[in-house]
Design goal:
Elements (H helix, E strand, L loop, with lengths): L4 E4 L10 H9 L4 H18 L10 H4 L1 H6 L4 H11 L6 H10 L3 E9 H11 L6 E4 L10 H16 L17 H17 L7 H5 L5 H15 L6 E5 L5 H9 L3 E5 L3 H6 L2 E5 L3 H23 L1 H9 L3 H11 L4 E5 L5 H16 L1 H4 L3
Parallel strand pairs: 1-2, 1-4, 2-3, 4-5, 5-6
Antiparallel strand pairs: 6-7
Helix pairs in contact: 1-2, 2-8, 5-7, 6-14, 11-12, 14-15, 14-16
Length: 363
């Protein structure tokens, strides 16, 4: 048996929340949800369509902060909101209680603000030093009333811009509508020229969200802590900020898993899980530990052989897993499966079913 080094994203694999979206929805009335979705789609356009290297997935957590500060968000309110609104994926508490008993090295690498990542970690028994999130101290920043009013006016403008729509098969900026390009252009001016000249613009220079490169770095730092090899890693992600880490683990011979992932996660992972419960992660981890990656490949390609792998697990391991999976929906695919688009649709549908359409559409 090999040592398992399990690294998981937070929102999606552990929590149903999109903390940044919910902060905008709950603190910015009445247009906070639309504002956040416009910012998120603008970033998808800039990174995945326009290929701009000065943006990265996850930067929405930075771009929204001056506006949240203008509406009075503080450190205390941020922490309180995280604790009060936390919603875990079904089965997460039981699954991670089981996984901790297996003595795996378990790390959380989250794009979320640290306050939310730590709230999730406390509920699931993660060691605090093994939680990485976006560092944020909002109370360091002071925004005068006049500037807050200006930010609120800009937010209203962003929320009334045309919808930023990005078709699934888009390849270049020419493939999106003129209205989308116009909205992106105006938001570019707001985020690159107007807000940085304000006092609250300091936030953009000082807050660094955990995007793709930072998640890879956090993954590598977690390996330095335990001395494990990349081939021992099981990485669980669900969105665009996990794509680079999923590819890194896959290239290093580890187990890269999309859990109810967006197209970006599905396209980057070697294995795709679509499930309404977290227990499939325990099953994959147990098989990975006992038979290595070959055992997981076998499970994904042959239901009969996979069944043999499951029943051959020690009784103390297989019994809680089988009980946890009983009555649950669970599909498992290898990356090279036929009808890939249907799997992407199935994953997106489960993502929307569990987390809601607005959150599922964020990438």
């Amino acid at each position: 048996m090999q040592t398992i080094h399990l690294v998981t994203a937070c929102e999606g694999p552990l929590a149903l929340n999109d903390n940044a979206f919910e902060l905008c929805r709950d603190f910015i009335a009445p247009a906070g949800d639309r504002f956040f979705n416009q910012v998120s789609r603008m970033l998808v356009y800039q990174t995945a369509v326009a290929g701009k290297e000065d943006y990265k997935a996850g930067d929405s957590l930075k771009l929204i902060l001056p506006f949240l500060k203008a509406y009075g968000l503080t450190n205390a309110a941020l922490t309180d909101h995280a604790e009060r609104n936390l919603k875990l994926v079904p089965g997460a508490e039981e699954t991670y209680r089981f996984l901790h008993l297996q003595n795996f090295s378990i790390f959380q690498v989250s794009t979320s603000y640290r306050q939310f990542a730590e709230a999730v970690g406390r509920r699931l028994g993660f060691q605090p030093e093994r939680i990485t999130g976006t560092e944020l101290d909002l109370d360091r920043y002071v925004i005068a009333d006049a500037e807050a009013d200006k930010l609120k006016t800009l937010l209203e403008e962003i929320s009334t811009l045309p919808d930023i729509e990005i078709p699934p098969d888009v390849k270049t900026p020419a493939d999106v509508s003129p209205e989308t390009r116009e909205a992106v252009s105006r938001m570019e001016a707001i985020f690159r020229e107007i807000v940085p000249e304000m006092a609250g613009g300091r936030i953009y220079a000082e807050v660094n969200p955990l995007g793709g490169p930072e998640k890879v770095r956090a993954l590598e730092e977690s390996l330095a802590q335990t001395g494990a090899a990349m081939a021992n890693v099981m990485y669980i992600g669900d969105g665009i900020t996990d794509a680079e880490a999923l590819k890194t683990v896959r290239a290093g011979g580890g187990l890269s898993v999309s859990f109810n992932g967006s197209r970006y996660a599905v396209d980057s992972a070697e294995f795709i899980v679509v499930a309404n419960n977290v227990w499939p992660i325990a099953l994959l981890a147990a098989i990975f530990q006992r038979w290595g990656k070959d055992g997981v490949v076998e499970l994904s390609t042959s239901s009969q052989a996979g069944h043999e792998k499951i029943v051959a697990l020690p009784e103390a391991v297989v019994e809680p897993i089988v009980r946890g999976l009983q009555g649950r929906n669970f599909s498992f695919y290898p990356a090279n499966m036929p009808n890939r688009d249907k799997v992407v649709e199935e994953s997106a549908a489960m993502r929307a079913r569990l987390r809601g359409e607005a959150i599922a559409a964020s990438g």
